[in-house]
């Protein structure tokens, strides 16, 4: 059975019933747009490398159209930007004085990062204060 190359729907005539592409230009033997990852796995992977995987899932075609994955990608980007900004602010503010607190700040962000990955993999949505509403607006 031929499939439409643009949307992946089965073709039953001269035009695709879903997107309207012509059968000659749209025919293929298998759908090209089948995602390789589940939504839960893709949502969790958005957090793994922070900015890199967040931007990657916003660019990759089957995932950038999914609102759930877009939310987790944006929240990952905003969370890691906040992590970097706060880390450098603490380093500058505590220069020489109470410098032992910087690992504690890093450990706190690491714990939140792990907490974001696990519920995302379980299909739950954790909305961080200040960052989460921004991510919801962007998604």
Strand content: under 5%
**Topology order in helix (H) and strand (E) letters:** EHEHHHHH
* C-alpha geometry: elongated
Counting helices, strands and paired strands, the structural category is mainly alpha
Rg calculated over all Cα atoms: 21 Å
Helical content band = 55-70%
State the low-pLDDT regions, or none.
Answer: 26-31
Strand order of the biggest β-sheet: 1-2
State the end-to-end CA separation.
Answer: 35 Å
Mean pLDDT: 81
Please supply descriptive tags for the structure shown above.
6 helices, 57% helix, 2 domains, elongated, 139 residues, mainly alpha, two-stranded antiparallel ribbon
Notes on the protein architecture:
The chain has 139 residues and is an all-alpha fold. It has two domains: 1-34, no CATH class; 39-138, no CATH class. Helix content is 57%, strand content 3%. It has six helices and two strands, in the order βαβααααα. The chain has a two-stranded antiparallel sheet with strand order 1-2. Helix 2 (39-48) crosses helix 3 (51-59). The longest helix has 27 residues, at 67-93. The radius of gyration is 21 Å and the shape is elongated. Residues 26-31 have low confidence and may be disordered.
Q: What's the gist of this structure?
A:
This protein has two domains: 1-34, no CATH class; 39-138, no CATH class.
Topology of this protein?
Layout: E1 3-4, H1 23-26, E2 27-28, H2 39-48, H3 51-59, H4 67-93, H5 101-121, H6 131-138
Antiparallel strand pairs: 1-2
Helix pairs in contact: 2-3, 2-4, 2-5, 3-4, 4-5, 4-6
């Amino acid at each position: 059975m031929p499939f439409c190359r643009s949307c992946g729907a089965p073709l039953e005539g001269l035009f695709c019933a879903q997107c309207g592409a012509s059968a000659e230009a749209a025919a293929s033997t298998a759908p090209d747009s089948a995602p390789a990852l589940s939504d839960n796995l893709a949502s969790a992977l958005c957090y793994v490398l922070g900015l890199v995987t967040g931007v990657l899932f916003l660019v990759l075609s089957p995932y950038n159209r999914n609102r759930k994955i877009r939310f987790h990608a944006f929240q990952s980007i905003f969370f890691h930007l906040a992590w970097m900004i706060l880390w450098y602010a603490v380093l500058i503010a505590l220069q020489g004085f109470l410098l032992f607190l910087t690992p504690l700040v890093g450990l706190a962000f690491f714990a939140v990062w792990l907490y974001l990955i696990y519920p995302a993999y379980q299909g739950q949505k954790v909305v961080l204060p200040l960052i989460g509403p921004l991510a919801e607006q962007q998604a």
